[in-house]
Amino acid sequence: MNAKKNYTKGIRRELVRLLSMSGVMTYRSLNAMPWNRQMAGRMIRKMEKEGVLEVYKNPSRILFANHTWQGTGEEYEQALTKEEIRYYRENVSYYMKNLKEDRKKWYQNSERLLRESEINALLYAAGTKILTDEKPCGDERIPEDMEVYYTSREIRRYWEDKATRAGLKSMMSDYMEGGAMHTRGHGLLISPGGNYAVYHTGRTLMKWEPMGEMTFAVNMARFLNRRTGDVQAEQIEDAIMLADVPVVYARMAVCEKKYQKRTGLEAVSQVYRRLYVLTTSSEGRRMACMMQKKGWQTRLREAFLAHEEMRESQFCTTPCDGYDREKDVYTLLFCIPDLIKLKDFATRAALEQKPEQYRVICFTHQLPIVANIVGADTCRVLSIQYETYEERTAEES
């Protein structure tokens, strides 16, 4: 019987690669993977028995058993390049000791590491370049057609290295000013479909500090300008937020009195023009994949709206994606998951109290968000399965 484990392909390889980038995985991340969920769970238990992984509870998390990797020639290192091994040792392993503590010693920084790992897993599954040897480093130019994600830690180190090479006494360049140190942002997603600041709010509402997040958005834009060369954005205007459950977004939009003002969309809209909301699930992964493709918004509008409706919407004061002048119907396409625009549309519909004139089109998995923001007596809601949309567009192409 061949007892040698194959780390060059399959789930073993994917688990090791993800852990080398994040240091930790949650079982929730497995829901976003294109793998078979039960098969992945069995492989994790098998690797735990082999002494490669350790599994902890409360909260459930998966880590390398030997988180320092002091030795060389470990069997699982076959899944990684030398650059990925070096990245783990220099940038990730230091934080892993905190993740092995019990719940009594748990603290906020460790929670942030878990959320970072879920972002990495979802984007990795969506085809984004997240591993260190897959994406341009240093001052190497980022190609226009590349889908790549840089964590806030990587961007901070980029500016620190530049400051060091320039002979500055401070390890932090003037591009990374104080406010960015306290951001809730996790990184920057660069793609042909758009450039997005990335957040993860988990199951709870995020307390928003507009000044700190504004600094974060500006610093991300400076990094983007430097690395792409032909972009001159003053700040990033689009953000993607992940949540474990969709009801969190409804609470953000409704922002009832029992919730603090800093957790609502009013605070978010001071920093970003558009907030795209996804869940840490297979649907979130598919949406993230779609949103990185050039022209994704145009394709969605053309799939659901007539050309005349799209043209007329440009002259409307109501925030919408389509307007049927003949029938006097405004349409918001929440398949483009902009929570700020949905909230503005719902507010206008509630003022008019004419449900026959307002409608929202969304994917079925988005219904829990829409239904808790848009009143049934103020607006019609139409939904379609994401798989049905994919099949229809595949047939048309």
- Count of alpha/pi helices: 14
Outline type:
globular
Sheet with the most strands: spatial strand order: 4-5-6-7-8
Reported for the largest beta sheet, the result is:
5 strands, mixed
> Separation of termini?
49 Å
Strand content: 5-15%
- Decide which structural class fits the backbone: alpha/beta
Short description:
With 397 residues, the protein is of the alpha/beta class.
Kindly describe this structure:
The chain is α/β, with parallel strands linked by helices and 397 residues long. The chain is 41% helix and 14% strand. It contains 14 helices and twelve strands. It has helices at 10-22, 37-49, 82-99, 108-125, 152-165, 210-228, 247-254, 265-268, 282-291, 296-304, 307-313, 339-352, 367-371, 386-396; strands at residues 24-25, 53-56, 61-64, 148-151, 187-191, 194-200, 238-243, 274-279, 322-324, 329-333, 358-363, 380-384. A five-stranded mixed beta sheet has the order 4-5-6-7-8, with helices on both faces. Helix 12 (339-352) links the parallel strand 10 (329-333) and strand 11. The longest helix is centred in the middle third of the chain and has 19 residues, at 210-228.
Which labels suit this protein?
alpha/beta; 12 strands
Record the SSE blueprint:
Blueprint: H1 10-22, E1 24-25, H2 37-49, E2 53-56, E3 61-64, H3 82-99, H4 108-125, E4 148-151, H5 152-165, E5 187-191, E6 194-200, H6 210-228, E7 238-243, H7 247-254, H8 265-268, E8 274-279, H9 282-291, H10 296-304, H11 307-313, E9 322-324, E10 329-333, H12 339-352, E11 358-363, H13 367-371, E12 380-384, H14 386-396
Helix pairs in contact: 1-3, 1-4
